[in-house]
């Protein structure tokens, strides 16, 4: 379909190496952060909040708290008291998922949308790469390299031609997708900078998709730093994808007494 250029390969390789090296085989990590919260105690756990590793968090009935550290993500469901540390020996699973999410993808994987396991029947596939721009949903998208932005779509059943329009300058460009084609490059005629916003239209789409670009450093030192950056910049779709890809089994409450 296309070949990833040397600059893009270098930035992706750096991101993979730094993130994977930050996941130890065991032992305590210095930082755990909140990525999602719901329920009565949600106001006490805003996204991005840091929690001391190996501490205990008390949740009420109806509370749901997703936390992340260098080993992956865990979802705590109240009521009960929970230890924030993950069980030792879980790092290899998240290493595999993270490498798949950040690295170049094979066509077969991207067509099925299998980031971690198979795609759910009846559901559109998820993006196979954290840095792909999903053209099917309005979002703020964090990108590590403005010179090589890759657009991705989940529906490959038909050929479409997108029209991308710069909301500030009024400039526009056509972006064709052939039937069966899942990704293509952003048009060079529309240079991207931090904060630039584009509206995407195509025949049969009732409402334009609005994409706002946020330029970030791909060389984030570990999962925590990367997740924090996605939270700060409002790149929610990518944060959700990251959280789902490195999810660990839900922990059980700490026994009372």
Question: What does this protein look like?
Answer:
Helix content is 21%, strand content 26%. It is an alpha+beta fold and 257 residues long. A five-stranded mixed beta sheet has the order 8-14-13-10-11. Strands 2-1-4-5 form a four-stranded antiparallel beta sheet, with helices on one face. Helix 1 (6-21) runs antiparallel to helix 2 (91-102).
Strands of the widest sheet, in order across it, are 8-14-13-10-11
Main sheet characteristics: 5 strands, mixed
For the termini, the CA-CA separation is 59 Å
Q: How would you classify the helix and strand content by structural class?
A: alpha+beta
Oligomeric state of this protein:
single chain
Rg over alpha carbons: 19 Å
Q: What is the overall silhouette? A: elongated
Portion in beta strands: 25-35%
Strand tally is 14
Order of helices and strands: HEEEEEEHHEEEEEEEEHH
Count of alpha/pi helices: 5
Mean pLDDT: 79
Q: Which regions are unreliable across 5 or more consecutive residues at pLDDT < 50?
A: 1-29, 104-121
**Percent of residues in helical segments?**
10-25%
């Amino acid at each position: 379909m296309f070949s990833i250029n040397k600059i893009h390969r270098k930035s992706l390789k750096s991101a993979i190496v730094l993130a994977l090296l930050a996941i130890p085989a065991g032992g305590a990590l210095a930082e755990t952060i909140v990525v999602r919260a719901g329920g009565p105690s949600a106001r006490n756990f805003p996204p991005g909040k840091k929690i001391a590793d190996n501490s205990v968090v008390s949740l009420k009935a109806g509370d749901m708290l997703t936390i992340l550290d260098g080993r992956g993500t865990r979802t705590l469901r109240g009521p009960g008291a929970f230890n924030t540390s993950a069980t030792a020996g879980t790092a290899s699973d998240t290493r595999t998922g993270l490498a798949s999410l950040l690295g170049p993808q094979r066509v077969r994987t991207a067509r099925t949308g299998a980031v971690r396991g198979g795609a759910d029947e009846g559901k559109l596939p998820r993006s196979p790469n954290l840095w792909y721009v999903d053209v099917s949903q309005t979002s703020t998208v964090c990108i590590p390299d403005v010179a090589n932005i890759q657009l991705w779509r989940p529906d490959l059943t038909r050929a479409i031609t997108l029209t991308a329009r710069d909301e500030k300058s009024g400039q526009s460009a056509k972006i064709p997708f052939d039937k069966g084609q899942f990704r293509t490059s952003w048009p060079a005629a529309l240079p991207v900078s931090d904060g630039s916003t584009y509206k995407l239209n195509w025949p049969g789409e009732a409402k334009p998709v609005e994409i706002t670009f946020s330029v970030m450093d791909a060389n984030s030192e570990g999962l925590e730093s990367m997740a924090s950056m996605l939270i700060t910049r409002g790149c929610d779709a990518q944060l959700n994808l990251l959280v789902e890809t490195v999810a660990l089994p839900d922990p059980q409450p700490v026994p009372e007494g």
